[in-house]
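Board notes (copied after class):
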Amino acid sequence: MLKTLTRRSVRMTQSTVRTAIFPVAGLGTRFLPATKATPKELLPVIDTPLIQYAIDEARAAGIERMVFVSHPSKSAIERHVRHDATLSRQLRAKGKNAVARKLEDACLREDEHEVIFVMQDQPLGLGHAVNCAAAHALPSAVAVILPDDLILGKTGCIAEMVAAYETAGAGHMVATMEVAPEAVSAYGILAPTRTEGRLIHASGMVEKPSVDEAPSRQAVVGRYVLDGSIFADLDALTPGAGGEYQLTDAIAAGSKRIGLAGFAFSGRRFDCGSKQGMLEATLHVAAQDPAYAEVLSAFRAPATGRGGLTVAA
């Protein structure tokens, strides 16, 4: 059974990447009406919200300071993230100690991690969201985690990237995965120069190219370890289409000075910004738990007359 990591189960690692930025201000329009009152980052895969997976991934990488770039309409995220002593007392008073303990393990405690919320009042792009956290980033490189890109594996993606970053020889590192030719135009695509193990050194990135113009099929997905100079490059950006500031433009600008590498992570990625990806992630997690075997088997076997869904383990 796949379980989200808890505060007690995570073995912290020493890290020179001390800050993680979580851009969570988006309105989640693809999931309306579900996201009218519930932030998309709180939508669950079975019973674990997407933001919880992202938090646990950062904790496992030894992150000290977590900066959430949110929106005033999404106060529920902060309530989920922070410890709620009143709720814990109420649960324990009713004898629900196991539930209280689970919530306490999930939350971020100020005596263990610094937790900062900043607001992105206008939807001006991922680059703008990351730059909203600039004043709160600790010295050294920073991690950026997009919660709706769920990456599940034995080792967290950011932990893998932080470990590789120490000796990568590149100032910026982006998580990459090979995608099918027909999917190339939906991603930023790496322009590789050489490969060393899981590292794919690159001269730059091309944003959403046609398959005929793409320099590779190595697509950039929602994990980044970025040199601290990223904030100066974000400050220097001019807005693109729709008035948005693109993080990929700032990474590309910096890569000319400090280098860029893709990282081929070991986990499996689910695009939970889409309904199809969210369903796939839910089925994947359910397939790891014997408690759901009977439900899933009813949809696996066409002979039952109840569908022929195949669930990948």
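Comment from the instructor: The chain has one domain: 19-273. Residues 275-287 form the longest helix (13 residues).
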